[in-house]
Amino acid sequence: MITAIVFVNADVSRIPQVAEQIAELSGVSEVYSVTGHIDLIAMVRVRDHDDVATVVADRLNKVDGVLSTETHIAFRSYSSHDLEAAFSLGPEAAG
Asked: How many domains does the chain have?
């Protein structure tokens, strides 16, 4: 599984509509409206690199209101949930 984090600059007057259209794209798992220099962050989860190109270049970039994108490919995934489970003593340690 390939995870790509896509920073999206959008037409400010259309951010909610752009976010909804991006969220409907196959391969896009989440879209976040954020503060800062970018307007939206889209999480793309697909099987291979060619699929990233299809989702981002062929679909996401063509959503009306998307002005520009910057794509980052994740190497590894770390989750606080996974870390908590790894260091948890669990109920068997309480006895």
From this structure: 1
